[in-house]
């Protein structure tokens, strides 16, 4: 097993086994280095293979190949375009200093491959709790007012849109300078507030539909059924509605969306929309978007 441990430089000397090699300055080697015991140094650069039982680096290690059962380092990082290949198990462990808590472990990589499968890399994450909408915008045939944030149920959990804010229209953003990739993955949370009667909600990536769902039932009796549920809930808990118009029950809050598609461009436009028409009153039927994450691999 290869263990990558984060540990303060001052404690490295105590980790060495019998008769370690101690180097207090940078070491540059053009060929291979093989040590049967422990290698301990502040910085090391090897244009070949480094082999040792335990390798302790307090600053920087650069090598074509490192073979060791244990590597002690503060930061494990690959240069841009390079790859860290671990043959075996990778265990990230923080080492406590005295009676204090273990320091954080830092693993820096643009991509990670596990079992021969490249893992998703998160390139953007927005939860809107700071009420900053960033580059998100709203487009509508009748109303292009700037999109705002609201809450529903939790006073500090903000999201784009919401009651009396977003009814008809599309919420969109273009992401640029994405790292090289072949697939893209979008995760988000959709909130549907107040009266929904079988209308559709959708997501587009680059102009193509990738997610579509129906909220509520396309039945005139839906409002009556909602009113019955509201009366029952009112009698049991004193609640009629989580947010928005108290006449209607929310049918879908916190609906998770998770879609992945083939994509290799460095630019991506995401659109969230619904089938609601311009005549819709956002104080009776509204929606919002939260926790938008973009991954590539």
Provide an overview of this structure.
Strand 9 and strand 10 form a beta hairpin. This protein has one helix at 221-237, and strands at 2-6, 21-23, 27-29, 33-34, 38-73, 75-77, 90-94, 106-108, 113-114, 117-118, 121-126, 137-139, 149-151, 158-161, 170-175, 183-194, 197-205, 208-216, 252-262, 268-274, 285-296. The radius of gyration is 27 Å and the shape is elongated. It has two domains: 2-117, no CATH class; 122-296, Sandwich (Jelly Rolls). It is mostly beta strands. Residues 1-18 have low confidence and may be disordered. The strands form five sheets. Strands 1, 2, 3, 4, 5 and 7 form a six-stranded parallel sheet that branches. Strands 11, 13, 14, 16, 19 and 21 form a six-stranded antiparallel sheet that branches.
**Proportion of residues in extended strands:** over 45%
| Tally of helical segments | 1
- Corresponding CATH architecture of the largest domain: Sandwich
Number of domains as seen in the coordinates:
2
CATH class of the largest domain: Mainly Beta
Query: What's the average pLDDT?
Result: 79
Give me the count of strands: 21
Largest sheet: 6 strands, parallel
Gap between N and C termini? 26 Å
Q: How large, in whole angstroms, is the Cα Rg? A: 27 Å
CATH overall fold name of the largest domain: Jelly Rolls
Q: What low-confidence regions span 5 or more consecutive residues with pLDDT below 50? A: 1-18
* Fraction of residues in H or I helices: under 10%
Question: What order do the helices and strands follow?
Answer: EEEEEEEEEEEEEEEEEEHEEE
| Class derived from helix and strand content | mainly beta
- What's the shape? elongated
């Amino acid at each position: 097993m290869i263990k990558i441990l984060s540990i303060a430089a001052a404690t490295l000397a105590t980790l060495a086994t019998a008769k370690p090699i101690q180097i207090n300055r940078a070491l540059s080697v053009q060929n291979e280095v093989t040590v049967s015991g422990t290698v301990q140094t502040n910085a090391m650069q090897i244009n070949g293979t480094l082999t040792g039982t335990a390798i302790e680096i307090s600053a920087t290690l650069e090598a074509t190949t490192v073979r060791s059962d244990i590597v002690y380092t503060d930061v494990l990082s690959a240069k841009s375009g390079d790859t860290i290949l671990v043959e075996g198990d990778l265990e990230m462990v923080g080492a406590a200093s005295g009676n204090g808590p273990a320091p954080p472990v830092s693993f820096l990589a643009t991509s990670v491959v596990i079992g021969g499968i490249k893992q998703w890399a998160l390139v953007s994450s927005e939860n809107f709790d700071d009420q900053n909408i960033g580059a998100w915008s709203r487009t509508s045939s009748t109303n292009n007012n700037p999109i705002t944030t609201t809450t529903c149920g939790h006073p500090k959990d903000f999201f784009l849109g919401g009651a009396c804010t977003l009814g008809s229209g599309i919420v969109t953003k273009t992401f640029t300078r994405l790292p090289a990739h072949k697939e893209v993955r979008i995760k988000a949370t959709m909130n549907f507030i107040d009266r929904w009667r079988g209308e559709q909600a959708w997501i587009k990536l680059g102009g193509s539909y990738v997610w579509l769902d129906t909220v509520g039932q396309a039945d005139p009796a839906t409002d009556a059924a909602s009113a019955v549920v509201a009366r029952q809930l009112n009698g049991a808990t004193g609640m009629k509605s989580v947010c928005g118009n108290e006449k209607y029950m929310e049918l879908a809050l916190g609906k998770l969306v998770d879609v992945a598609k083939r994509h290799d461009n460095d630019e991506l436009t995401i659109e969230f929309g619904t089938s609601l028409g311009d005549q819709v009153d956002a104080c009776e039927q509204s929606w919002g978007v939260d926790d938008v994450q973009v991954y590539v691999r």
